[in-house]
Amino acid sequence: MHERMDRETEASLHLFRVFSKAFKSISDHTAAGCKQEGFNPTDFAVLEMLYYKGPQPIQQIGSKLLLQSGNITYVIDKLERNGYVKRHPCTKDRRVIYAELSESGWQSMKLIVPRQAHMLRRALSGLTMKEKDQAIALLKKLGLQAERLALIHYAKNE
């Protein structure tokens, strides 16, 4: 028979399950919106990053979106083939290649982003504005602590 966990451990496990289920529900909601626009979520995440942040080194896009470098090359290739993205070398370091939205990609995103934002707003409508601000602050705090602990753990095990 299992030993009874302390309240803190039980609450942590419960929080993780609730957080995971909420994240999945919201992700599924936004994935459906991406599909409706003709993109998979990864393609859309790359396009959205380029839309908001401008040209980005391809090597950094993957890490910013938590993707493997091989996957990002495939995604950029596909988006370039479909006319949404173009590549160009860095003027200071020819080893670095930038991806940026093409004119067609820019025009498409100007139409799609407001629809996606509306869909996401609907998906998160279960919270008031004040609750959203609180959730943002708490999730940042949670993520930063988990990141710090991971760095300490990995540093000890090297």
UniProtKB/TrEMBL annotation:
One of its GO terms (molecular function) is DNA-binding transcription factor activity. This is MarR family transcriptional regulator. PANTHER family: HTH-TYPE TRANSCRIPTIONAL REGULATOR MHQR, TRANSCRIPTIONAL REGULATOR, MARR FAMILY. GO terms for biological process: response to stress. It comes from the Bacteria. Pfam families: MarR (PF01047). Keywords: DNA-binding, Transcription, Transcription regulation. Residues 12-144 form the HTH marR-type domain. It comes from Paenibacillus agilis.
